[in-house]
Structures are given as C-alpha cells and as structure tokens.
Amino acid sequence: MSGDRVLGAARNDTERCVEAALAAIEPWQGKRLEYAPVLGGLQNSNWRITVEGNDTRYFLKIPGAGSETFIDRGLANEAARRAGVKGIGPELVHFDADTGVEVIEFLEGYRACTNGDFKDASIPHQIIDIYRVLHDGELLSTTKTMFDMIDEHLGQARELGVRLPEDVELILGEYQVAKEALLASGLDLAACHNDPMPGNFLVGDGQPMKLVDYEFASNNERAYELALLTTEMFYTEELINELVEAFYGRADFGLLARVQVCSALADTKWGLWACVNQQLSTAWDFDYHKYGCWKLMRARLKMSDPRWPFWLKAL
C-alpha cells in the first residue's frame, strides 16, 4: 500500500517500536505486514496495520510512556472486549497484558469525531444510546469511582510535588462536601467509559456510532458519565436538561442536580490528572499543566454557582 512501511524497513526508534510490537503477535509471524500512523492520540502511538492474506485491516495501539500510572490495562481490555461483543465498539483481536499493546479491527469508512461534530445536537443523543448499551448488564470486575480517581490524583500530586493553583484548597473543600453528599445518597454504579474525548467516538455515513479507547473504564456513578460529556462539550443548560431526560427517561431536579454536581467533580478529576500528567513526562507536545489549571478553575466556578448548595441538598 502506498505510503505504508513494510515490516523490516523501520527508519527510526518509533517505527522500530511498532515493528517489535508486531513481531510479538504470533498469528502474524511470517506474514508480510505493512503499517502507517493514525493521527489523533494524545498519549498513545496509533497505527493502521495491513496483514498479507487478510481482508480486514487492523488498528494497533502502543501505550505512551508514563500512561501506566493512570491505566489498569487488564480492566481496559475487559471493557473493550465487552464493547466489541455488544457491538458498540470494534472487535478486539489481540492484547498483551505485559506491554498494554492492543489490536482491534480497523473500522473502514469511519472517522473520529471533532469538537465541531459535537455542535450537532444529534451527536450527544447518539452517545447516550451507546451509553445505555454500555451501562446495561453486569458490572466490570473493578469499581473505581470519581472519588477514587480524584483521591488517587491528589496522592500523586503530593508525591510528585505537583504545583496546583493557590485556591485548590477551596475546590477540595467543596469536593469533600459533594463526596459526602453523593455517598450518603448512594451511588448508582454502572460499567462506564469515563473518557468522552471527541476522538473516542467514531462515525461513518449510514453506520452506527462506535466508542473506542476504554483505558479509563470502570464501574462508576452513572450520572458522572453524562456529566463528563456535557462538561467536556460546554453544553448549555437547556441541552443538558434535554440530555438528562434522554439519559434517564425523566429530568427532575434531583437528577439535574446530580449531573451538575458530578460535572464539577469531572473538572476536578481531569484538572488534577492533567497537572500530574505534565510532571510525568517532558515529551508531551501539549501544556497539560495549563489545561489542568483551567479545568480546576472551571470546577471552582461551578462550585460558586448560587445553586450549588441546593444541588447538594437535592442529592
């Protein structure tokens, strides 16, 4: 295939890493393999693979250095396999538990969503349809709630000496209040994806949307899954109300409050994650610390909303 590299013709360390991963896949050994980069991953190295004699092409993901700090590879594999079986994700065909290298079917005719796609209100409704399928049925083997994630990142930040905003204690104080209120109300656990980055949703003309990249999947509060989506996309309150009704089948104040509180926790979680992530590697071509501080500021803005205490009381 024009533009693809043939196994054995690596020109640099990145391509040699790809070839080492491909050489370890036993069913492909001895076959002619071609590989080409796929753009879009923030941390991982992604590649399209063509295998001699196979009509299907494949998507190879090689985890980025340092990403193991945040990711349970076994759990991610469990969630990805389940999604493939349910038909909401691509079929998973290979997984190396030691390296985290994963191979899934390459979805021909699909492309990753962009932020621009999410301006179309039909997109979040399609996502909610996927979430319903994902959340239905048995829980995953591991529960890791937004509280576990936030507390883990706080521990990492302290251990690594990560610089956080001066007003972070105000945010963390409200986080503790919200945590106590949500735990007192009882968590509604479901098998969640936990990472609604636009590029994780694939669309194709006349094809059902697919959800990929289950690295942050775990059993978590159901409302947090929706809150992540609405927060990530800056959706208006009018659209949030509409999506809550589509998600739950109703939109009473208690459910709306639950999603609003979880949206502040979502920004707290990802804000801390980004600040910690910046400290783990200087190789990222992205200012994670700036991004993390912005997320934390937005969490504080939500927590300073005059309705915040009423949302907490409604949980």
Automatic annotation (TrEMBL):
What InterPro entries does the record point to?
A: Kinase-like_dom_sf
UniProt-recorded Gene Ontology molecular function terms: ethanolamine kinase activity
> A GO CC term?
cytoplasm
Q: Which GO terms describe its biological process?
A: phosphatidylethanolamine biosynthetic process
* Protein name according to UniProt: Phosphotransferase
